[in-house]
Amino acid sequence: MKETDIIIIGAGPTGLFAVFEAGLLRLKCHLIDTLPQPGGQLTELYPKKPIFDIPGYPSVGAAELVDNLMEQIKQFQPEFTLSETAVTLKKQADNTFVVTTDKGTQVKGKAVAIAGGLGTFEPRKPEISNLADYEDKGVEYFVRKPERFAGKRVVIAGGGDSALDWSIFLSNVAQSVTLVHRRNEFRAALDSVEKVKALKAAGKINLITPAEVVALKGEGQLSAVVLEKEGVQEELPTDYFIPLFGLTPKLGPIADWGLEIERNAIKVNNALDYQTNIEGVYAIGDVNTYPGKLKLILCGFHEATLMCQGVYNRLYPTKKYVLKYTTVAGVDGFDGSRKEAEKAVIQSI
């Protein structure tokens, strides 16, 4: 059985950054993820999508951000169990935890941090009768390789951040980009909305609102979509149709761990350290919920930081930790080392 300080369920950006914050406290981490590589949604769904709300980066590619996080935590030598799903959580008599995966791997830890993002997820699909006939034949739900759309006619449907971000990005890649939304208003960042309007004015994006894609056409391969606007239907030739209506999240086995769940998210105490109703089990990132919750990567980083502080205080209640800034102490200059903490516990006994 593998042993560690913090078992992290999920190797997305929040889980990866938690390794860094734990490392500053000399706490070891073991990450478990269903996917075959670290990075979560950033790696699996949109590795080349630009991200605009990471401090210090006007724009950073999703895969680049994951690479930087991996480089940042390399010094703390985290362990990974990938391509395996955490299925059971059992609390031991000594208040440690054992997590078992679907392939029988067992990891024992002093605390558990659930950083599973949206959990397992599926794209929300529009109600088009023959949609399945064109999946992987012109219908795509994710943009994993933007270069495949080079010189192609692309129709994107949706009004959220992903729809607008990819419309902006692909306007410099595709032959043509048409963005279709059933409302005139968007649910995306104001900056993205302004960029789309500017690209429309420049003739680089064809913006059609309010309208919907109601049918697909093509002989074995998508060749056109049927748009309906104000009761009038129009056929629009295209090579790709990308409906971006978000993801349907599912917690999977985690939902059976006795955690307090609200609207498919784990309730936590955000007033302190994002602990769940089970002492020693925490939830950080998109998987949790609390009043005022924002599902942003930078919020996950903040939650991971406070979670690690909470774990340290729980494991070493008699050891007073004095926060030092990395700009002053450096990564190796922290006095909260494992030996000192363990010594403090022994002395307290």
Features:
FAD/NAD(P)-binding domain; 2 domains; 8 helices; alpha/beta; elongated; 7-stranded mixed beta sheet; FAD; 4-stranded parallel beta sheet; 349 residues
Describe this structure in words.
Belongs to the ferredoxin--NADP reductase type 2 family. FAD binds at residues 14, 33, 41, 46, 86, 121, 286, 327. It catalyses: 2 reduced [2Fe-2S]-[ferredoxin] + NADP(+) + H(+) = 2 oxidized [2Fe-2S]-[ferredoxin] + NADPH. Homodimer. Residues 5-291 form the FAD/NAD(P)-binding domain. This protein is of the alpha/beta class and 349 residues long. The chain folds into two domains: 2-119 and 251-339, FAD/NAD(P)-binding domain, CATH 3.50.50.60; 124-246, FAD/NAD(P)-binding domain (3-Layer(bba) Sandwich). It has eight helices and 21 strands. It has helices at residues 13-24, 41-44, 62-73, 161-170, 190-201, 297-315, 326-329, 338-348, and strands at residues 2-9, 29-33, 50-51, 60-61, 79-82, 86-91, 97-101, 106-114, 120-123, 153-157, 176-180, 206-208, 212-217, 224-229, 232-237, 240-243, 247-250, 261-262, 265-267, 281-283, 288-289. Strands 1, 2, 5, 6, 7, 8 and 20 form a seven-stranded mixed β-sheet that branches. Strands 12-11-10-16 form a four-stranded parallel β-sheet, covered by helices on one side. Helix 1 (13-24) packs parallel to helix 3 (62-73), helix 1 runs parallel beside helix 6 (297-315) and helix 4 (161-170) packs parallel to helix 5. The longest helix has 19 residues, at 297-315. The protein is elongated and about 70 Å long. The two termini are 28 Å apart. 37% of the residues are buried. Mean pLDDT is 89; it is low at 340-349.
